[in-house]
Design brief:
alpha+beta, three-stranded antiparallel beta sheet, about 20% helix
């Protein structure tokens, strides 16, 4: 394809991106020529035989402001994050609210990412809207101002701000990270809360300094089932308007649409066994499950909510497929979620976007119930 043809395709796809960005970006042969068209069947192009939404593989590597403009047709404008306006995630130790850092796993509701118990983080939910203020009721944004307590003796884990946007109709999703936000955030010494206001897209230079795009990191290696992760730490924050609802929305349904704008080459597979009761309400990202199990949370102790452990046989069936591989497990398949106008699909060995993260790690699957119990007993002894 000639340079002039590339230039035409580029302008048709993303008119808002700069020419300089195009010059340094190689457009993959799998990239559709429009961000807003219908499904593409790559068998017609001599590529992978499957339906995919019009998308590209370079958006997640763009600058933050370029990516913000790219996602606007699906997700509207990015909300401005003020950590002080969010709902603080309460931390409890022995059923009492705690301020400070009691230590990893030393609280009643630890994060399932290394057991973080630091207080002072907050969450906020936003409805989507266009630049002119028109509401997008099918779009939701969630921000996470994270006062991180996963420090070690040799490394001080920096505080961070994450932002996720999701279109409930098409499944279009975007992830933003602000790992270097010290210019705009601070920790209040009295409340131990991370506070501060980050710049919006109306200040492109500052926005690019505050945020980063995923780059080569596939956020779906943790956010596998859908864009939003739930654990005891996250779910302690409830909406002010509806105290029974978590700030992070609970998405239910075994076939919710889900894909990453600008990440057409991300590995969206999860394992699927038809009739498995664990998959009646949601997909199950086994890599996420492994991480939770590695932190002492076992599905059979909590799921299903109305009768924990009653589906243990079905979970063991999923775990066996995950460890042995669908190719070695009759009745188990890899499946990618619905995306825009494309229905969910079973995929085989010809799936071109396999990533190394989507493989089992047996050391994470060790039952750590006893280990967590010992931590709890030590804590009880020190408080008596």
């Amino acid at each position: 394809m000639s340079y002039s043809r590339h230039k035409f395709v580029y302008k048709a796809a993303i008119a808002s991106l700069t020419i300089s960005f195009f010059i340094i970006t190689k457009i993959s042969a799998l990239d559709p020529q429009s961000l807003n068209g219908g499904p593409v069947n790559y068998s017609e192009q001599g590529e992978w035989n499957a339906c995919m939404p019009d998308n590209n593989s370079f958006g997640s590597k763009a600058t933050p402001i370029e990516y913000a403009r790219m996602i606007e047709p699906e997700l509207g404008v990015i909300p401005i994050i003020d950590c002080g306006e969010g709902v603080e995630i309460p931390i409890y130790v022995d059923d009492r609210k705690f301020i400070g850092n009691p230590g990893l796993h030393n609280c009643d509701n630890p994060s399932l990412q290394i057991g973080d118990c630091m207080s002072g983080s907050s969450l906020q939910r936003f409805g989507g809207q266009r630049a002119d203020g028109t509401a997008l009721p099918h779009v939701v944004w969630v921000s996470f101002c994270r006062h991180d307590g996963r420090d070690t003796e040799v490394y001080d884990m920096p505080d961070s701000v994450q932002l996720i946007g999701y279109n409930l109709v098409t499944g279009a999703t975007a992830f933003f990270e602000s790992g270097d936000n010290s210019k705009w955030t601070y920790v209040d010494p009295e409340s131990n809360r991370l506070l501060g206001k980050l710049p919006g897209t109306d200040n492109p230079e500052e926005f690019n300094m505050a945020y980063s795009t995923p780059g080569d990191v596939q956020c779906v290696q943790c956010h596998q089932s859908d864009p939003f992760i739930h654990n005891p730490f996250i779910d302690a924050a409830k909406l002010r308007s509806h105290a029974s609802q978590t700030v992070v929305p609970r998405l239910t349904g075994p076939d919710l649409p889900y894909y990453l704008i600008g990440g057409s080459d991300w590995d969206m597979r999860t394992i699927h066994i038809e009739g498995n009761s664990c998959l009646n309400c949601h997909r199950m990202g086994m890599k996420t499950v492994e991480e939770f199990m590695g932190d002492g949370w076992h599905p059979n102790d909590y799921m299903p909510p109305h009768s924990p452990g009653s589906q243990s046989q079905d979970f063991e069936e999923l775990l066996a497929c995950w460890n042995d591989g669908p190719e070695n497990t009759p009745g188990c398949d890899w499946r990618i979620p619905a995306a825009d106008q494309c229905k969910s699909q079973l995929v085989g060995d010809d799936y071109p976007f396999k990533a190394n993260f989507n493989t089992p790690n047996l050391t994470e699957q060790v039952d750590r119930t006893r280990e967590r119990r010992e931590i709890f007993l030590r804590r009880m002894r020190t408080t008596q």
